[in-house]
Amino acid sequence: MRADADEASRTLAARGIVSSSTAFLGGVARILSGDLDAAEALLDDAVGIAERTGAHEMRAGALGERSLVAMTRGQWGRAEAFAGQASTVLREAGIEESYVAPLVCAVLARVALRQGDVPAARQHLFSAQRSRPLLTYAIPHVSVQALAELTRVYLAMADAAGARTLLRQVDELLARRPDLGTLTGEVAELRTLLAEERRVTQGKASSLTVAELRVLPLLATHLSFPEIAAELSLSPHTVKSQAISIYRKLGASSRNQAVIQSRELGLLTAE
């Protein structure tokens, strides 16, 4: 990844083409290799290029990665600042859902916990849920980074159910993309921590699966279960089962109550 990003950067530069993606991917490759100094320099370049070229999501992504580097170094103020900038970029660009959002929310949640602000941390976690279905093996490094950081927050809040659900999603990603450098070791450490966690949480909204998160927005529409099933290419029985599971985890007794509860938690945007 590092070699390919560097070669792409040289090739594009020789042709007079400016791209933030090569600097971004080169920076991420350095993170996965444990070379944080080189990573930070490249990510700084990516932020600047993306700002000049109007590549808003790439700029937010590079800022999110810089926040991770700062947090790894114990620079919590810088981590919060970079994550806050990334969040502002997405908001001002009108990007409501992005693969970058869960990573940014995870950093902000960890910062909030460090500051002792548990309600704020919980709100950032719920905000991350909206874009969690976008964390796929298409961009595996960002997906696993975000899920690992979110898992750390859930463990810190003694939400074993939420942590377990996220690690199952990580396992699905690693089954397709196993060679993710330092991330594989981080995930192994999280599995050990979860195995040592004896406290069990039940009925937590944080334990919604990716499949349930895909169904949830459609519960807020006029569509019936069979129509939702057709929209998602699922069977009506599967949709009904997922809806019942959503109700249970949200502590709701009806579809309308689940939608109201989801909006209050920030899992769905308000009307």
Description:
It contains 14 helices and no strands. It has 271 residues and is mainly alpha-helical. It has two domains: 2-203, Serine Threonine Protein Phosphatase 5, Tetratricopeptide repeat; 210-265, Winged helix-like DNA-binding domain superfamily/Winged helix DNA-binding domain (Arc Repressor Mutant, subunit A, Orthogonal Bundle). Helix 4 packs antiparallel against helix 5 and helix 8 (140-156) runs antiparallel to helix 9 (160-176). The radius of gyration is 19 Å and the shape is globular.
Summarize the structure.
The chain is built from 14 helices and no strands.
List keywords for this structure.
single chain; 271 residues; mainly alpha; Serine Threonine Protein Phosphatase 5, Tetratricopeptide repeat; Arc Repressor Mutant, subunit A; globular
Fourth-tier CATH superfamily name of the largest domain: Tetratricopeptide repeat domain
Spatial shape = globular
Content-based structural category: mainly alpha
* Known CATH architecture of the largest domain: Alpha Horseshoe
As a percent range, the share of strand residues is under 5%
The portion of residues assigned to helices is over 70%
For the secondary structure, the number of strands is 0
Low-confidence stretches: none
Structural topology:
Layout: H1 2-14, H2 20-33, H3 36-53, H4 56-72, H5 76-92, H6 101-114, H7 118-131, H8 140-156, H9 160-176, H10 182-196, H11 210-219, H12 225-232, H13 236-250, H14 255-265
